[in-house]
């Protein structure tokens, strides 16, 4: 079975870009994000940077197919003239786990629906063009639990399969008084099934997907 277990995102927060149209200024920003809770603090921070701006329009996308979530926000601009063209550029560049914000300072001349769409699209495009786009793997995390006496067996598989350990701890079993090891590890999605099966078949070792 073929897995697509990679996705593209931006490496780090972009520098500010500026697009001007008929006196209006459009400032563009891009941020790598992992969840929607990160969006509000970013917007609040931009509002402090631009106290004279009225519109803080944005779009974001999180996750990979089939579990993609996204939002496009016009923030007071006419419907679908800001958030949608920004989101269109996220799709065009094929990136996810990314937030694009375009801050508009009104210049006194109305741009009309077509003008607004073009301005927000262009600013989002300029913003993504200066970003470093990188490829990341979609990973699956496992929690492996085992009696301390089986530590070497577990570590041998982790080493052989080049698994990344994200956390490691020891507990005392209340019934036996013996130490229990708990290791959290991750692997690429395409390898997850075979890794799970290896540990699942091992005696006295428990594995579950987090």
TrEMBL record:
Gene3D superfamilies linked to this entry: Impact, N-terminal domain (3.30.230.30)
Single GO biological process annotation from the record: regulation of translational initiation
SUPFAM superfamilies cross-referenced by the UniProt entry: Ribosomal protein S5 domain 2-like (SSF54211)
Gene Ontology terms: cellular component: cytoplasm
Domain Impact N-terminal: 22-127
Family in the record: Belongs to the IMPACT family.
Entry protein name: YigZ family protein
Source organism per UniProt: Flavobacterium pectinovorum
